[in-house]
Protein backbone atom coordinates (compact mmCIF):
# COMPACT_ATOMS: atom_id res chain seq x y z
CA UNK A 1 0.00 0.00 0.00
CA UNK A 2 1.33 3.50 -0.79
CA UNK A 3 1.98 5.57 2.35
CA UNK A 4 2.77 8.78 0.46
CA UNK A 5 0.43 10.17 -2.18
CA UNK A 6 -2.39 7.72 -2.95
CA UNK A 7 -3.00 6.78 0.67
CA UNK A 8 -5.88 4.34 1.05
CA UNK A 9 -5.19 2.41 -2.14
CA UNK A 10 -4.51 -1.29 -1.57
CA UNK A 11 -2.90 -3.70 -4.02
CA UNK A 12 -2.71 -7.48 -3.93
CA UNK A 13 0.44 -8.55 -5.77
CA UNK A 14 1.09 -12.07 -7.04
CA UNK A 15 4.40 -13.48 -8.31
CA UNK A 16 3.26 -13.47 -11.94
CA UNK A 17 3.05 -9.66 -11.82
CA UNK A 18 6.74 -9.25 -10.95
CA UNK A 19 9.18 -8.64 -13.83
CA UNK A 20 12.00 -10.57 -12.12
CA UNK A 21 12.50 -13.19 -9.45
CA UNK A 22 14.02 -10.59 -7.12
CA UNK A 23 12.36 -7.15 -7.00
CA UNK A 24 12.72 -4.00 -4.92
CA UNK A 25 9.89 -2.06 -3.24
CA UNK A 26 10.07 1.72 -3.56
CA UNK A 27 10.38 3.96 -0.48
CA UNK A 28 6.82 5.35 -0.73
CA UNK A 29 5.04 2.05 -0.12
CA UNK A 30 4.58 -0.49 2.65
CA UNK A 31 4.67 -4.25 2.09
CA UNK A 32 2.52 -6.51 4.26
CA UNK A 33 3.01 -10.27 4.26
CA UNK A 34 2.25 -13.12 6.62
CA UNK A 35 2.81 -16.86 6.86
CA UNK A 36 0.20 -17.61 9.51
CA UNK A 37 -2.85 -15.75 8.15
CA UNK A 38 -4.60 -15.53 4.79
CA UNK A 39 -3.09 -12.32 3.37
CA UNK A 40 -5.99 -11.97 0.90
CA UNK A 41 -8.30 -11.61 3.89
CA UNK A 42 -6.42 -8.46 4.94
CA UNK A 43 -6.52 -7.17 1.37
CA UNK A 44 -10.31 -7.31 1.44
CA UNK A 45 -10.54 -5.96 4.98
CA UNK A 46 -8.37 -2.95 4.16
CA UNK A 47 -10.95 -1.85 1.56
CA UNK A 48 -13.90 -1.48 3.94
CA UNK A 49 -14.89 1.85 5.46
CA UNK A 50 -13.97 0.90 9.04
CA UNK A 51 -10.31 0.41 8.12
CA UNK A 52 -10.21 3.31 5.65
CA UNK A 53 -11.49 5.69 8.36
CA UNK A 54 -8.79 4.51 10.77
CA UNK A 55 -6.23 5.05 8.03
CA UNK A 56 -7.54 8.58 7.46
CA UNK A 57 -6.97 9.38 11.15
CA UNK A 58 -3.25 8.61 10.92
CA UNK A 59 -2.81 10.28 7.53
CA UNK A 60 -1.37 13.78 7.39
CA UNK A 61 -2.96 16.09 4.81
CA UNK A 62 -0.31 18.78 5.09
CA UNK A 63 1.17 18.99 1.61
CA UNK A 64 1.21 15.50 0.12
CA UNK A 65 -0.88 12.96 2.04
CA UNK A 66 1.21 10.48 4.03
CA UNK A 67 1.26 8.17 7.05
CA UNK A 68 4.04 6.22 8.73
CA UNK A 69 4.50 2.52 9.38
CA UNK A 70 4.59 2.96 13.16
CA UNK A 71 1.07 4.42 13.23
CA UNK A 72 -0.17 1.79 10.78
CA UNK A 73 0.98 -0.98 13.13
CA UNK A 74 -1.25 0.45 15.90
CA UNK A 75 -4.48 0.04 13.91
CA UNK A 76 -6.58 -2.79 15.36
CA UNK A 77 -7.77 -5.39 12.86
CA UNK A 78 -10.18 -8.27 13.65
CA UNK A 79 -8.56 -11.63 12.99
CA UNK A 80 -11.04 -14.54 12.93
CA UNK A 81 -9.90 -18.18 12.83
CA UNK A 82 -8.01 -19.13 9.68
CA UNK A 83 -10.87 -21.27 8.35
CA UNK A 84 -13.19 -18.25 8.61
CA UNK A 85 -10.63 -16.09 6.81
CA UNK A 86 -10.38 -18.69 4.05
CA UNK A 87 -14.15 -18.89 3.63
CA UNK A 88 -14.52 -15.09 3.47
CA UNK A 89 -11.76 -14.93 0.86
CA UNK A 90 -13.35 -17.76 -1.14
CA UNK A 91 -16.72 -15.98 -1.25
CA UNK A 92 -15.27 -12.58 -2.15
CA UNK A 93 -12.92 -14.11 -4.73
CA UNK A 94 -15.94 -15.68 -6.39
CA UNK A 95 -17.73 -12.33 -6.63
CA UNK A 96 -14.54 -10.69 -7.92
CA UNK A 97 -14.13 -13.37 -10.60
CA UNK A 98 -17.75 -12.97 -11.69
CA UNK A 99 -17.29 -9.22 -12.14
CA UNK A 100 -13.98 -9.73 -13.99
CA UNK A 101 -15.66 -12.22 -16.33
CA UNK A 102 -18.46 -9.79 -17.14
CA UNK A 103 -15.98 -6.94 -17.61
CA UNK A 104 -13.95 -9.03 -20.08
CA UNK A 105 -17.13 -9.81 -22.00
CA UNK A 106 -18.04 -6.11 -22.07
CA UNK A 107 -14.54 -5.22 -23.33
CA UNK A 108 -14.93 -7.75 -26.15
CA UNK A 109 -18.32 -6.28 -27.00
CA UNK A 110 -16.90 -2.74 -27.08
CA UNK A 111 -14.14 -3.91 -29.41
CA UNK A 112 -16.79 -5.44 -31.63
CA UNK A 113 -18.75 -2.18 -31.56
CA UNK A 114 -15.60 -0.23 -32.48
CA UNK A 115 -15.04 -2.55 -35.47
CA UNK A 116 -18.63 -2.16 -36.72
CA UNK A 117 -18.49 1.61 -36.24
CA UNK A 118 -15.34 1.89 -38.35
CA UNK A 119 -16.76 -0.51 -40.95
CA UNK A 120 -20.02 1.44 -41.29
CA UNK A 121 -18.12 4.72 -41.58
CA UNK A 122 -15.58 3.51 -44.15
CA UNK A 123 -17.60 4.00 -47.40
CA UNK A 124 -14.42 3.34 -49.42
CA UNK A 125 -14.65 5.24 -52.77
CA UNK A 126 -18.42 5.47 -52.99
CA UNK A 127 -18.93 8.74 -51.09
CA UNK A 128 -17.54 12.26 -51.43
CA UNK A 129 -14.66 12.97 -49.03
CA UNK A 130 -14.43 16.49 -47.58
CA UNK A 131 -12.22 18.34 -45.15
CA UNK A 132 -13.93 19.13 -41.86
CA UNK A 133 -12.95 22.79 -42.14
CA UNK A 134 -14.87 23.11 -45.43
CA UNK A 135 -18.19 21.98 -43.96
CA UNK A 136 -18.09 23.53 -40.47
CA UNK A 137 -16.79 26.47 -38.47
CA UNK A 138 -13.80 25.52 -36.29
CA UNK A 139 -12.42 27.86 -33.64
CA UNK A 140 -10.50 27.61 -30.38
CA UNK A 141 -12.03 28.39 -27.00
CA UNK A 142 -10.98 31.45 -25.01
CA UNK A 143 -10.39 32.15 -21.33
CA UNK A 144 -11.04 35.43 -19.49
CA UNK A 145 -8.09 36.01 -17.18
CA UNK A 146 -7.67 35.75 -14.31
CA UNK A 147 -10.59 33.32 -14.38
CA UNK A 148 -11.15 33.69 -10.61
CA UNK A 149 -12.38 37.24 -11.26
CA UNK A 150 -15.19 35.96 -13.47
CA UNK A 151 -16.51 32.93 -11.56
CA UNK A 152 -20.03 33.59 -10.27
CA UNK A 153 -22.76 31.85 -8.29
CA UNK A 154 -25.50 34.13 -9.63
CA UNK A 155 -28.41 32.57 -11.53
CA UNK A 156 -27.69 34.60 -14.66
CA UNK A 157 -24.15 33.16 -14.86
CA UNK A 158 -23.06 31.33 -18.01
CA UNK A 159 -22.07 27.64 -17.82
CA UNK A 160 -18.26 27.34 -17.74
CA UNK A 161 -17.33 24.05 -19.45
CA UNK A 162 -14.09 22.49 -18.20
CA UNK A 163 -12.37 19.17 -18.87
CA UNK A 164 -13.45 17.99 -15.41
CA UNK A 165 -17.12 18.42 -16.36
CA UNK A 166 -17.07 15.63 -18.94
CA UNK A 167 -17.28 11.88 -18.54
CA UNK A 168 -15.05 9.77 -20.80
CA UNK A 169 -17.87 7.25 -21.14
CA UNK A 170 -20.41 9.85 -22.29
CA UNK A 171 -21.18 11.52 -25.62
CA UNK A 172 -22.52 14.65 -23.98
CA UNK A 173 -21.61 17.64 -21.86
CA UNK A 174 -24.62 17.65 -19.54
CA UNK A 175 -23.76 20.10 -16.75
CA UNK A 176 -20.97 22.23 -15.33
CA UNK A 177 -19.70 22.77 -11.81
CA UNK A 178 -19.03 26.48 -12.32
CA UNK A 179 -20.45 29.52 -14.09
CA UNK A 180 -18.87 32.74 -15.28
CA UNK A 181 -20.29 36.24 -15.41
CA UNK A 182 -21.82 37.84 -18.50
CA UNK A 183 -18.69 39.99 -18.74
CA UNK A 184 -16.50 36.87 -18.62
CA UNK A 185 -18.58 35.28 -21.38
CA UNK A 186 -17.75 38.21 -23.67
CA UNK A 187 -14.06 37.31 -23.31
CA UNK A 188 -14.64 33.59 -23.81
CA UNK A 189 -16.17 31.45 -26.58
CA UNK A 190 -19.93 30.81 -26.54
CA UNK A 191 -21.12 27.30 -27.42
CA UNK A 192 -24.70 26.33 -28.22
CA UNK A 193 -26.68 23.17 -27.74
CA UNK A 194 -25.78 20.76 -30.54
CA UNK A 195 -22.27 22.12 -31.06
CA UNK A 196 -19.35 19.70 -30.81
CA UNK A 197 -16.23 20.38 -28.78
CA UNK A 198 -12.86 18.61 -28.85
CA UNK A 199 -10.32 18.59 -26.05
CA UNK A 200 -7.11 19.97 -27.55
CA UNK A 201 -4.56 18.85 -24.97
CA UNK A 202 -3.94 15.94 -22.60
CA UNK A 203 -6.73 13.51 -23.75
CA UNK A 204 -6.81 15.44 -27.01
CA UNK A 205 -9.27 14.77 -29.82
CA UNK A 206 -12.07 13.36 -27.67
CA UNK A 207 -15.34 14.81 -29.03
CA UNK A 208 -18.39 15.73 -26.95
CA UNK A 209 -21.83 16.97 -27.94
CA UNK A 210 -22.85 20.10 -26.03
CA UNK A 211 -26.27 19.62 -24.42
CA UNK A 212 -26.50 23.10 -22.91
CA UNK A 213 -25.33 26.58 -23.78
CA UNK A 214 -22.13 27.75 -22.14
CA UNK A 215 -18.57 28.98 -22.64
CA UNK A 216 -15.35 27.07 -23.33
CA UNK A 217 -11.77 27.94 -22.44
CA UNK A 218 -8.73 27.54 -24.69
CA UNK A 219 -8.40 23.86 -23.76
CA UNK A 220 -11.28 23.17 -26.17
CA UNK A 221 -11.86 23.42 -29.92
CA UNK A 222 -15.40 24.27 -31.07
CA UNK A 223 -16.99 22.71 -34.18
CA UNK A 224 -20.23 24.45 -35.19
CA UNK A 225 -22.38 25.36 -38.22
CA UNK A 226 -22.11 21.86 -39.67
CA UNK A 227 -25.81 20.97 -39.54
CA UNK A 228 -26.44 21.59 -43.26
CA UNK A 229 -24.15 18.67 -44.07
CA UNK A 230 -24.11 16.42 -41.02
CA UNK A 231 -26.33 15.17 -38.25
CA UNK A 232 -24.82 15.83 -34.83
CA UNK A 233 -24.53 12.17 -33.84
CA UNK A 234 -23.09 11.08 -37.18
CA UNK A 235 -20.35 13.71 -37.01
CA UNK A 236 -19.64 12.65 -33.42
CA UNK A 237 -19.19 9.03 -34.53
CA UNK A 238 -16.92 10.11 -37.39
CA UNK A 239 -14.71 12.02 -34.96
CA UNK A 240 -14.62 9.00 -32.64
CA UNK A 241 -13.62 6.60 -35.43
CA UNK A 242 -10.20 4.98 -35.20
CA UNK A 243 -9.17 6.54 -38.52
CA UNK A 244 -9.83 10.12 -37.37
CA UNK A 245 -8.41 9.52 -33.89
CA UNK A 246 -5.23 8.07 -35.44
CA UNK A 247 -4.93 11.08 -37.77
CA UNK A 248 -5.07 13.43 -34.79
CA UNK A 249 -2.55 11.38 -32.81
CA UNK A 250 -0.16 11.28 -35.76
CA UNK A 251 -0.37 15.02 -36.40
CA UNK A 252 -0.58 16.44 -32.89
CA UNK A 253 1.98 19.10 -31.98
CA UNK A 254 4.61 17.51 -29.71
CA UNK A 255 6.00 19.16 -26.61
CA UNK A 256 5.81 18.90 -22.85
CA UNK A 257 2.04 18.59 -23.34
CA UNK A 258 0.81 17.31 -26.71
CA UNK A 259 -1.45 19.89 -28.32
CA UNK A 260 -4.12 19.66 -31.01
CA UNK A 261 -4.37 22.86 -33.05
CA UNK A 262 -7.15 24.19 -35.28
CA UNK A 263 -5.34 23.52 -38.56
CA UNK A 264 -5.07 19.81 -37.76
CA UNK A 265 -8.80 19.62 -37.07
CA UNK A 266 -9.71 21.63 -40.19
CA UNK A 267 -7.75 19.21 -42.37
CA UNK A 268 -9.45 16.06 -41.07
CA UNK A 269 -10.88 14.23 -44.09
CA UNK A 270 -14.29 12.63 -43.58
CA UNK A 271 -16.98 11.07 -45.81
CA UNK A 272 -20.12 13.06 -46.61
CA UNK A 273 -23.04 10.66 -47.18
CA UNK A 274 -26.67 11.83 -47.60
CA UNK A 275 -28.41 12.81 -44.35
CA UNK A 276 -30.80 9.86 -44.69
CA UNK A 277 -27.86 7.44 -44.80
CA UNK A 278 -26.33 9.21 -41.79
CA UNK A 279 -29.59 8.75 -39.89
CA UNK A 280 -29.70 4.99 -40.53
CA UNK A 281 -26.06 4.53 -39.48
CA UNK A 282 -26.62 6.56 -36.30
CA UNK A 283 -29.58 4.34 -35.36
CA UNK A 284 -27.38 1.23 -35.61
CA UNK A 285 -24.46 2.77 -33.70
CA UNK A 286 -26.71 4.25 -31.01
CA UNK A 287 -28.08 0.77 -30.31
CA UNK A 288 -24.56 -0.65 -30.11
CA UNK A 289 -23.41 2.12 -27.79
CA UNK A 290 -26.43 1.70 -25.53
CA UNK A 291 -25.75 -2.01 -25.16
CA UNK A 292 -22.09 -1.29 -24.33
CA UNK A 293 -22.43 1.72 -22.05
CA UNK A 294 -25.96 2.14 -20.68
CA UNK A 295 -25.90 1.33 -16.96
CA UNK A 296 -29.62 0.54 -17.05
CA UNK A 297 -29.41 -2.37 -19.49
CA UNK A 298 -27.26 -5.32 -20.53
CA UNK A 299 -23.76 -6.04 -19.31
CA UNK A 300 -23.03 -2.61 -17.77
CA UNK A 301 -26.12 -2.99 -15.60
CA UNK A 302 -25.15 -6.53 -14.62
CA UNK A 303 -21.56 -5.49 -13.80
CA UNK A 304 -22.83 -2.62 -11.66
CA UNK A 305 -25.23 -4.98 -9.84
CA UNK A 306 -22.46 -7.56 -9.23
CA UNK A 307 -20.11 -4.84 -7.95
CA UNK A 308 -22.73 -3.54 -5.51
CA UNK A 309 -23.48 -7.08 -4.40
CA UNK A 310 -19.76 -7.75 -3.86
CA UNK A 311 -19.32 -4.54 -1.83
CA UNK A 312 -22.40 -5.31 0.26
CA UNK A 313 -21.23 -8.80 1.19
CA UNK A 314 -17.62 -7.65 1.69
CA UNK A 315 -18.72 -5.01 4.19
CA UNK A 316 -21.09 -7.38 5.97
CA UNK A 317 -18.65 -10.30 6.10
CA UNK A 318 -15.86 -8.13 7.48
CA UNK A 319 -17.74 -6.18 10.16
CA UNK A 320 -18.11 -9.29 12.30
CA UNK A 321 -21.55 -8.85 13.80
CA UNK A 322 -21.65 -12.26 15.44
CA UNK A 323 -25.45 -12.52 15.35
CA UNK A 324 -25.58 -12.08 11.59
CA UNK A 325 -22.23 -13.20 10.24
CA UNK A 326 -22.96 -16.93 10.05
CA UNK A 327 -26.32 -16.55 8.31
CA UNK A 328 -25.01 -13.93 5.90
CA UNK A 329 -21.90 -15.90 5.03
CA UNK A 330 -24.11 -18.85 4.08
CA UNK A 331 -26.35 -16.53 2.08
CA UNK A 332 -23.35 -14.93 0.34
CA UNK A 333 -21.83 -18.31 -0.46
CA UNK A 334 -25.12 -19.54 -1.92
CA UNK A 335 -25.55 -16.33 -3.94
CA UNK A 336 -22.00 -16.49 -5.31
CA UNK A 337 -22.44 -20.13 -6.33
CA UNK A 338 -25.77 -19.32 -7.97
CA UNK A 339 -24.28 -16.46 -10.00
CA UNK A 340 -21.29 -18.58 -11.01
CA UNK A 341 -23.59 -21.35 -12.25
CA UNK A 342 -25.73 -18.83 -14.12
CA UNK A 343 -22.72 -17.31 -15.92
CA UNK A 344 -21.24 -20.74 -16.65
CA UNK A 345 -24.45 -22.02 -18.28
CA UNK A 346 -24.53 -21.88 -22.11
CA UNK A 347 -25.95 -18.60 -23.42
CA UNK A 348 -28.88 -18.83 -25.76
CA UNK A 349 -28.45 -17.14 -29.17
From TrEMBL:
Q: Which UniProt keywords apply?
A: DNA-binding, Endonuclease, Hydrolase, Nuclease, Restriction system
Type I restriction modification DNA specificity domain residues are 24-106, 126-305
Q: Which InterPro entries match?
A: Restrct_endonuc_typeI_TRD (IPR000055), Restrct_endonuc_typeI_TRD_sf (IPR044946), Type-I_RE_S_subunit (IPR051212)
Which Gene Ontology biological process is one annotated for this entry?
DNA restriction-modification system
An annotated Gene Ontology molecular function = endonuclease activity
Q: Which domain of life is it from?
A: Bacteria
Q: What family is reported?
A: Belongs to the type-I restriction system S methylase family.
Q: What is this protein called?
A: Restriction endonuclease subunit S
Amino acid sequence: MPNIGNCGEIYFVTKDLFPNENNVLGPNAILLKTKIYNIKYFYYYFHIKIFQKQLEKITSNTGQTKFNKTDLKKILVPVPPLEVQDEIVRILDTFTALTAELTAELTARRNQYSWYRDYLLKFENKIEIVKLGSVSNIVRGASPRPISNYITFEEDGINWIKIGDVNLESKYVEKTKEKITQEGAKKSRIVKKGDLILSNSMSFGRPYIVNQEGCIHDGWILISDYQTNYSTDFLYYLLMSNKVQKYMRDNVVSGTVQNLNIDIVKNIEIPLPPLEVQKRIVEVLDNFEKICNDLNIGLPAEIEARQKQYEFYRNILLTFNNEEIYALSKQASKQASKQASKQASPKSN
